[in-house]
Write a structure and sequence with these properties.
Layout (H helix, E strand, L loop, with lengths): L45 E5 L2 H4 L8 E3 L4 E5 L5 H21 L4 E2 L4 E5 L5 E6 L2 E4 L12 E2 L8 E5 L9 H8 L3 E6 L14 E8 L2 E5 L10 H9 L5 H18 L7 H21 L2 H34 L10 H4 L4 H10 L3 H13 L5 H7 L1 H5 L10
């Protein structure tokens, strides 16, 4: 897909070398008291609960925001759902495709504590993002646990999913005040009755200019990737041909800027070499154009199947880890045969543990016409009696 003619060009500075993004003390040297949003934050679609300074240290649940002043945290009223999780989790897989074409890694770390300390070094404010992405993880000063403003490098992109919330009235102002360079706010295509009025599906890109956000239609971190293209990629059920072309375009643009190429990605270099070798060998053996074409096609198909398995394994491990489930899982192409990405995501979001995850994949492969929802409804009585969803599947 050609780059749209009306896309705004946004300059991009070298990553992780600006004092505003890292420095001594909160906010790169500024006193914590000066890093405040212009208005008191609000959290539509969320409910407050008490969380003391002592308890927050060991708290393992999710929340949107925590303040030490009131010892109050805010969490979403609606339970975690696939509609909320898919856009942010999908970015991790999309980023891996871009990284492969670019020839250099891109890392997404999922939901992460973003911590602002006070002058005494105590936790003062905490945000939890839906997704964070680093385009140069090898150069970044990364946290082991929570990211501390002024101590660690800020991510190149933060993603917030507004399924039943509205970050414009709370979290967005905090991201701006704390100096985050780029924030994507996605409203999923799948709607909900509890979604705030006037929130229509789409994605907004907020770029930090000076100390204020401005809204634009193109990413600065991912050059040429438009808001409409990002929203489509994060919300479609399966990656479309148009999205694949866009990801390749963005990856090649990044590679041209950084002096890298697809052959700098080991597995892709191997697959490309195998595809070329297969095509050349068959072409020489037959002496026909058809033979060369078939050889190339077979090599590309084999590379796609293996590449898909590698990308899905990234999504599987990170999603299981974000849910507190052991992520010691590796799927090979044979495990994914007959399964769509949607089948895998359904199993990830519904499973109780890794064994249950694999069982759900096997069940879906053996019964392609039966949805997991139908299965769950049909087995509700068994579940209430403590029996597995499908005896004999494991």
């Amino acid at each position: 897909m050609p780059r749209p003619a009306d896309v705004e060009t946004v300059p991009y500075d070298s990553p992780y070398d600006q004092s505003a993004r890292r420095g001594g003390g909160a906010g790169g040297g500024r006193p914590a008291s000066s890093i405040r949003p212009s208005a008191e934050p609000e959290f539509p679609g969320c409910r407050p609960f008490r969380l003391t300074k002592e308890d927050v240290e060991a708290f393992e649940g999710r929340f949107e925001y925590w303040s030490a002043d009131t010892e109050t945290a805010w969490k979403m009223c609606e339970p975690t759902s696939r509609t909320h999780e898919q856009p942010s989790q999908r970015l991790a897989a999309l980023g891996q495709v871009i990284a492969a074409v670019r020839g250099a890694p891109i890392e997404c770390y999922g939901s992460m504590d973003l911590i602002l300390r006070n002058e005494r070094g105590e936790k003062w404010r905490i945000l939890q993002a839906d997704q964070v992405a680093y385009l140069y993880p090898g150069r970044a000063r990364l946290p082991v646990h929570g990211l501390v403003i002024g101590e660690h490098d800020l991510p190149d992109v933060v993603v917030e999913v507004d399924h039943t919330t509205d970050v414009r009235r709370g979290k967005l102002g905090l991201y701006e005040a704390w100096g985050f360079p780029e924030v994507w706010v996605d409203i999923p295509d799948q709607t909900a009755p509890s979604r705030p009025a006037g929130r229509t599906p789409g994605l907004a890109i907020h770029l930090l200019d000076g100390d204020r956000f401005r809204t634009t239609n193109v990413s600065r971190a991912f050059p040429g990737w438009t808001a409409a293209e990002i929203h489509a990629a994060m919300n479609e059920r399966l990656p479309s041909a148009a999205t694949t072309r866009v990801l390749e375009r963005v990856g090649r643009t990044l590679g041209a800027r950084d002096g890298t190429c697809p052959d700098d990605t080991p597995w892709l270099r191997r697959q490309r070499a195998e595809g070329r070798a297969a095509g050349h060998a068959e072409g020489r053996a037959t002496g026909h154009v058809e033979g060369r074409t078939a050889g190339h096609a077979e090599g590309r198909l084999e590379g796609f199947v293996e590449g898909r398995a590698e990308l899905l394994n990234v999504v599987v491990r990170r999603t299981l880890a974000s849910r507190g489930i052991s992520n010691d899982v590796t799927l090979d192409p044979a495990d994914l045969a007959g399964l769509t990405d949607e089948h895998v995501m359904d199993a990830l979001l519904e499973c109780r543990d890794t064994a249950d995850f694999r069982a759900r994949l096997r069940y879906r492969r053996r019964r392609p016409g039966c949805s997991l929802t139908d299965r769950a409804s049909r087995s509700s009585t068994e579940r209430g009696r403590g029996r597995p969803l499908d005896p004999g599947v494991r």
